[in-house]
């Protein structure tokens, strides 16, 4: 099925990048009000348009990647073009519920999805919930996002939690990486080498958890030898509030998004 991405900001462009890189088997459209000074990297694979009407008319799956305050306005403006026998709407906007969308586009199937920006390199974790699926496209929606990473299906009441842990979580991990790189520079590495070591270390740590299906503490135990340098470093971080600060950050982000 043809996929249309409405909105070409950071997340919208990342979704388009991911679909192209994964060789998605279907036409890809994306719309933006003004393309001036915006790069269009895949002119042979993506239809870049300023017309939301053209996108809607040519696509069965419509991913809305607009700012949350624009989602209902978009659906209201184009409700007359949305066909319950053809279209499936997937919103990737934070805080706009399926009920709110369904009240505007009555009868049209509605999903919510929350990928993260790693979708641009086919490594997203995307949380998805469905509301109505009369056209039985759950498998198609799953396939679209599986092609650009990993999918987890959740209840809608957990969508804000998934946003904080998966989408905001990218920034948390990158800030942790930055701190590790700064530490690496302090102990003697140049910035480029420190970045390479840290990036691969974090990638390797993630793969250990994913492939071994293990708990992080189990993998930590394999590294921490008695009276070793790893355990003293970990303990110093904990004395300085490392885990507590991270947990507080996650909870604070959730409190903000849940208002």
Structural class: alpha/beta
Range of strand content: 5-15%
Number of domains: 2
Radius of gyration: 21 Å
Helical content (DSSP H or I, runs of 4+): 40-55%
CATH architecture of the largest domain: 3-Layer(aba) Sandwich
Biggest sheet layout: 8 strands, mixed
What sequence of helices (H) and strands (E) makes up the elements?
EHEEHEHEHEEHEHHHHH
**General shape:** elongated
Mean pLDDT across residues: 96
Distance between the termini: 36 Å
CATH T-level fold name of the largest domain: Rossmann fold
> What is the β-strand count?
8
CATH superfamily of the largest domain: NAD(P)-binding Rossmann-like Domain
Walk me through the structure.
This protein has helices at residues 10-21, 52-58, 68-78, 98-104, 138-146, 159-186, 191-212, 216-221, 229-239, 242-257; strands spanning 3-6, 28-31, 46-49, 61-64, 88-91, 109-114, 124-130, 149-153. By secondary structure, the chain is α/β, with parallel strands linked by helices. It folds into 2 domains: 3-153, NAD(P)-binding Rossmann-like Domain (Rossmann fold, 3-Layer(aba) Sandwich), CATH 3.40.50.720; 163-257, ProC C-terminal domain-like (ProC C-terminal domain-like fold). Helix 6 crosses helix 7 (191-212) and helix 6 (159-186) runs antiparallel to helix 10. The longest helix is centred in the middle third of the chain and has 28 residues, at 159-186. The mean pLDDT is 96.
How are the secondary structure elements laid out?
Elements lengths: L2 E4 L3 H12 L6 E4 L14 E4 L2 H7 L2 E4 L3 H11 L9 E4 L6 H7 L4 E6 L9 E7 L7 H9 L2 E5 L5 H28 L4 H22 L3 H6 L7 H11 L2 H16 L2
Parallel strand pairs: 1-2, 1-4, 2-3, 4-5, 5-6, 7-8
Antiparallel strand pairs: 6-7
């Amino acid at each position: 099925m043809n996929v249309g991405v409405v909105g070409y900001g950071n997340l919208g462009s990342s979704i388009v990048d991911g679909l192209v890189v994964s060789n998605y088997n279907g036409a890809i459209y994306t719309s933006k009000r003004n393309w001036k000074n915006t790069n269009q990297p895949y002119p042979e694979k993506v239809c870049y348009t300023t017309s939301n009407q053209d996108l809607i008319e040519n696509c069965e799956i419509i991913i809305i990647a607009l700012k949350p305050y624009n989602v209902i306005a978009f659906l209201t403006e184009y409700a007359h073009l949305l066909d319950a026998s053809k279209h499936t709407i997937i919103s990737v906007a934070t805080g706009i519920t399926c009920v709110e969308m369904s009240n505007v586009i009555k009868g049209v199937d509605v999903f919510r999805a929350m990928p993260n920006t790693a979708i641009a390199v086919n490594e997203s974790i995307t949380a998805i919930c469905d509301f109505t699926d009369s056209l039985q496209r759950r498998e198609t929606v799953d396939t679209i996002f599986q092609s650009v990473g990993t999918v987890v299906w959740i209840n809608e009441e957990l969508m804000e939690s998934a946003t904080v842990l998966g989408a905001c979580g990218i920034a948390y991990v990158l800030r942790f990486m930055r701190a590790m790189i700064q530490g690496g520079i302090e102990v003697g590495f140049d910035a480029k080498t420190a970045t390479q070591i840290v990036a691969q270390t974090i990638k390797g740590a993630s793969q250990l958890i994913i492939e071994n299906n293990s708990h992080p503490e189990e993998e930590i135990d394999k590294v921490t030898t008695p009276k070793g340098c790893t355990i003293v470093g970990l303990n110093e971080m904990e004395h300085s509030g490392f885990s507590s600060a991270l947990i507080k950050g996650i909870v604070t982000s959730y409190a903000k998004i849940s208002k």
